[in-house]
């Protein structure tokens, strides 16, 4: 059976950059899956599926429609335990470490156990760190937490290290969907120098230049999505 985390980790170790397209089920029309997937970049390596608020069963329908159209790994990026579906390949088991709301630090994780304990999904513990992207994002509203200011570089680095020290396998720096500006190159660089696990960066990355700058700063995987929704 394919180990998706091992693939990501090996790519990071070899300096091979990964590109993920994030699909929000609430903004996805399953009937137009083929048309949508034709628009994504050819260098896309993974697809994340999830959103802060998703209607019941919509995630499963979205995953099924995507998997009928391509062979890219589909990894769940859930905003709520109810979005977990067996039809995906893997799951980012997220802890929102930038906030202090126990619901997203541990409660959602506990609620998910009944769905996961007999699941074939590959579970990837992930430190999720919300960074200020210049506007209030859905994660901020739903979680009731505030992002960390981009001026607080040391706090961001220490939060990432706390994630690694607590056993997380991925660090995900998130500026939020539709952010006015992405996570800065300085933050990416400092976090990458500090941690020894793969680094994912998303939110506000729309242009080729922004993507390449994030890669050069140290991101192992870039997540893009908003520009492909319409």
Summarize the helix and strand pattern as letters.
Answer: HEHEHEEHEHHEHEHE
Structural class: alpha/beta
Helix content: 25-40%
Shape: globular
- Number of E strands: 8
What's the helix count?
A: 8
Low-confidence stretches: none
Share of residues in strands: 15-25%
Distance between the termini: 35 Å
Strand order of the largest sheet: 1-2-3-4-5-6-7-8
Cα-atom Rg, whole angstroms? Answer: 16 Å
Q: Compute the average pLDDT.
A: 96
What's the main sheet like? 8 strands, parallel, barrel
Write structural notes for this entry:
This protein has 230 residues and is α/β, with parallel strands linked by helices. The protein contains eight helices and eight strands. The model has no long low-confidence stretch (mean pLDDT 96).
């Amino acid at each position: 059976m394919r180990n998706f985390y091992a693939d990501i980790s090996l790519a990071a170790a070899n300096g091979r950059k990964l590109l993920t397209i994030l699909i929000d089920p609430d903004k996805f029309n399953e009937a137009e899956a083929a048309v949508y997937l034709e628009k994504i970049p050819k260098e896309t390596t993974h697809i994340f599926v999830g959103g802060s608020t998703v209607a019941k069963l919509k995630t499963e329908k979205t995953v099924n429609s995507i998997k009928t159209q391509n062979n890219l790994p589909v990894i769940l990026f859930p905003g709520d335990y109810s979005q977990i579906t067996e039809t995906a390949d893997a799951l980012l088991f997220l802890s929102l470490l930038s906030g202090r709301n126990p619901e997203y630090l541990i409660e959602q994780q506990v609620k998910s156990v009944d769905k996961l304990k007999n699941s074939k999904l590959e579970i990837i513990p992930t430190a999720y760190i919300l960074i200020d992207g210049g506007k209030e994002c859905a994660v901020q509203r739903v979680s009731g937490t505030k992002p960390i200011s981009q001026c607080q570089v040391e706090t961001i680095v220490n939060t990432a290290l706390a994630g690694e020290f607590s056993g997380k396998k991925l660090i995900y720096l998130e500026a939020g969907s539709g952010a006015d500006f992405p996570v800065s190159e300085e933050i990416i660089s400092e976090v990458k120098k500090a941690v020894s696990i793969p680094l994912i960066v998303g939110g506000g990355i729309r242009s080729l230049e922004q993507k390449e700058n994030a890669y050069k700063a140290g991101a192992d995987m870039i997540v893009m999505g908003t520009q492909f929704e319409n």
